[in-house]
């Protein structure tokens, strides 16, 4: 890849709206002035100025579609939480090209679920139930890209978020540093981090970006906050209570990254996503900052493993793409095996969250990346405990509500956490491992209606010891409180849920959890964590705090798992570890060093550029909310990594207000041509609806260029096991553009695998899929075309060209239709266009079913528009397919489009001279002459004579790359073509016969002799021209001395009709006579129009069903049909390209019934006669042909004259004169009649054979004899 250089656009720097002042005095600082309120963000809030036009999209999208991904970046960041956001921002500010890969989707405030139904759609469950000694059940359910991810583990479960911004989207925002004693644990932390103040400046960097502040004193009182304060006081720990700083905005303003923030509406919805725009998640700061500095972000990319680049430079990151409405995931056998990849040239940062990063490392190790055996060990749940103080004596109001009624405005829920009882000090925890924090919480609205039932049904409740002695009034109040919830809902003041306090404890655990891969799935074990004596002490503390306010302690709902025999009862929202920093600087006791670099084994050597920057590196429980420490450690790692790798992070330049909806980033990396085209296609589809689907085709690919036939290549490849497959996602961003614009292709993204070419998959980015494009190489055929650039992990670039053939062979055959639409003929080439291999790929029934299951709509403003897009595509596809399935009923083609516009015609050398020569009966004929660039007087001129109803065009076609005139001119020959009186000329309407046409040939030969001053010429004569020429030679009209040699094409003096022609000619009713009677004319024109007489229009309709020689010969050209009626099928359609077939009305003329009767007589009697019926093949006449060099050529599939026609002529000459020099015969397999001259490949197969004969004739010393062969 060429090195990219970014372009920058100027932005007005504006000061931050505020700079948080949160060192030690933060908790005692006087409250600032806040503007209470805030509303859900509108599109205008994301735009830099109110005057900016508002786009049709409602929310920003700083991520890009995966088809816009580059194959290589300086830095790749896996994950987008705190560590990932830091890595992306700092590398981008360091001038590096950055790619961010995120498993989840991009969602902005206003898009987060509120109701239980919507939230349930976003729930993804993974992991197992059961214990190690019992049967374990895989519990994977839901969308892996869903916002909420519940991991079921043994001993403890975990809850994290998937989405752009990671768990920061759902956490409770509490920004607290790890205490000094925790950071000094020498059996956990590296020496570099045990130093006093090691993280001080990095915590400050995190503060400057995240801007935490405590809940303001002048804001409305929060009942749950007051309740926690009361509990602290009643338990004797009032001095340990305070309002912790949190990353919530309580005033409108611009944040440190330049993003518009709104004041919190105090909804308590943090755990399902805050929709008011107040939450300072990574999505609102580090990621927009990275975007503004050029980082390119891609969502729904599940990274599976990392490998060293084969070149030794950088890393290959392999991922499964969940995009396109997850339709790729419907291919279950392939989804996690046929992986896409991106190359990190310098740095790869693992920031997929504790569990995600650890799983990636385990998979990477499994496939050969060397690392410490400690990976997946030493994990922790950060000592998390979730519990509830149910139905207390006090109102907690801890149930979140996005849109409370106006009468509830005076009692808001507040942010999820606003208060803390901090029990980490030495005065209450002599042993650092006994320290913990207790924070109050809020239950989101989505769970509100279920909370009462969950709390009532959860076993293991801890009641106050004096519960039985409580007054009857207290008991009655509690009874009515429960009834109030059931009858009037959980928000009812005084109800049991309204009086429930939510607790979250963070403490220290044993750090003995593990994550392993079992049957390719992650298995999380927190062995014995719930039985830890420390946990029992914490439960006692919770019970004491709860009982102090008259409540019942209810454990986490997962406590029920224990009683169901499915495991233990804890849950953590802060899993950490798995890629632990080593306390001794080696891989013997850790996975990463103090900078997060991954060890290569048990020693101190690391993988340069492979760095973990998330919670996975934290080596022990922190006893407090961990994200501040994770962010600070990530800031430190990036600082040190930048210094090690020689780049400087620009931390001084501030962003102006970012326009995330309509604006462009400050730094933009240049687009390649294919990226620009893909981007334009996407932009062209703005507001349009499209379709998307995933497709898998597999088969066999022969590697090598020696086999040209696809079926032979497939057969050989199958024998040696050279399999191939592609796995593509196809996006048709605008169905309208696809249907109406011939230049519009769908965009294909995915992989191509062929083990014979590479052990790794080839990446396909921005490939093209064209539906029903006209096949220019074959007549009356359409293709489904796949044009894909294949990029190998070794940097090799190959081109994939595949096509499905949609033609008349499908007619009335479901099996052939299936074959046509599911069979792809593939050629792989290098950039220099040399062939790498050929083969055939197919869609099997199983993969087709998966493709149809995942088929769906994309884009479009609303459901109806999306459905309309699907309908339009399916209608287009069905109609195009049906046209060939019911091929005879297609709309007839009368006048070729190419005639109206000559743009499809190829540039050809014009004839130098067009001369009208007069025959001895004073009938004039045109003779065209072409002169070569350099005239060689040693070479004889060539005279070409076409057949009936055609002219010089059959030899000088403007629709094929090399026509006969081109070919022989290129060999130095001067070429003449005569259009005789039965050819495509007005004179033909006068009723002349083929016998009369010999006079025109004689006149043309006289002209050639006169103009070239040569006594003889080589003659190439075709069909009726060949018959006329034979007549002239036999009766002496044309002297044989004028003929140096000749090629007789398809017939000579023994014409024998093919089967259908013979049936017509021998019909008991004279068909020419019938025609003359019905049409009232002796003239039959091969060209027709919709304005013709009724009899002609009826004829055209009847000819739809005329015998065509097989399904492959069905077409919708009236000219083709009519010419077949009078002459027989003139070609094998596969040999004509599309342009030639379209030009038939310009190539063919007509014939009189008299001339046709003359031809029919000869074809049925198998001999030539004069106009009086006298036979011309006599012993005397044959003597004139003695020693005349003749090459007979014939198409094996000729449906006009059977191949016996030329075979009989050769046999008669051989019987008369014995073997003669240069009297030969060649049959060309697969060719018909006129396609021997008009075929797209005739210059490769037919013309060279004629040239060989000419050159043999010109070499008198060459010995030769009569021969008869078929070309293979």
UniProtKB/TrEMBL annotation:
<keyword id="KW-0443">Lipid metabolism</keyword>
<keyword id="KW-0753">Steroid metabolism</keyword>
<comment type="similarity">
    <text>Belongs to the GMC oxidoreductase family.</text>
</comment>
<feature type="region of interest" description="Disordered">
    <location>
        <begin position="1"/>
        <end position="46"/>
    </location>
</feature>
<dbReference type="Pfam" id="PF00732">
    <property type="entry name" value="GMC_oxred_N"/>
</dbReference>
<keyword id="KW-0274">FAD</keyword>
<dbReference type="InterPro" id="IPR036188">
    <property type="entry name" value="FAD/NAD-bd_sf"/>
</dbReference>
<keyword id="KW-0153">Cholesterol metabolism</keyword>
<keyword id="KW-0413">Isomerase</keyword>
<dbReference type="GO" id="GO:0016995">
    <property type="term" value="F:cholesterol oxidase activity"/>
</dbReference>
<protein>
    <recommendedName>
        <fullName>Cholesterol oxidase</fullName>
        <ecNumber>1.1.3.6</ecNumber>
        <ecNumber>5.3.3.1</ecNumber>
    </recommendedName>
</protein>
<dbReference type="InterPro" id="IPR003953">
    <property type="entry name" value="FAD-dep_OxRdtase_2_FAD-bd"/>
</dbReference>
<feature type="domain" description="Glucose-methanol-choline oxidoreductase N-terminal">
    <location>
        <begin position="124"/>
        <end position="377"/>
    </location>
</feature>
<dbReference type="GO" id="GO:0008203">
    <property type="term" value="P:cholesterol metabolic process"/>
</dbReference>
<comment type="pathway">
    <text>Steroid metabolism; cholesterol degradation.</text>
</comment>
<dbReference type="InterPro" id="IPR029058">
    <property type="entry name" value="AB_hydrolase_fold"/>
</dbReference>
<feature type="domain" description="Glucose-methanol-choline oxidoreductase C-terminal">
    <location>
        <begin position="572"/>
        <end position="634"/>
    </location>
</feature>
<dbReference type="Pfam" id="PF00890">
    <property type="entry name" value="FAD_binding_2"/>
</dbReference>
<feature type="domain" description="FAD-dependent oxidoreductase 2 FAD-binding">
    <location>
        <begin position="74"/>
        <end position="106"/>
    </location>
</feature>
<dbReference type="GO" id="GO:0004769">
    <property type="term" value="F:steroid Delta-isomerase activity"/>
</dbReference>
<dbReference type="InterPro" id="IPR007867">
    <property type="entry name" value="GMC_OxRtase_C"/>
</dbReference>
<feature type="compositionally biased region" description="Polar residues">
    <location>
        <begin position="1"/>
        <end position="14"/>
    </location>
</feature>
<dbReference type="GO" id="GO:0050660">
    <property type="term" value="F:flavin adenine dinucleotide binding"/>
</dbReference>
<keyword id="KW-1207">Sterol metabolism</keyword>
<dbReference type="InterPro" id="IPR000172">
    <property type="entry name" value="GMC_OxRdtase_N"/>
</dbReference>
<dbReference type="InterPro" id="IPR052542">
    <property type="entry name" value="Cholesterol_Oxidase"/>
</dbReference>
<keyword id="KW-0285">Flavoprotein</keyword>
<keyword id="KW-0560">Oxidoreductase</keyword>
<dbReference type="Pfam" id="PF05199">
    <property type="entry name" value="GMC_oxred_C"/>
</dbReference>
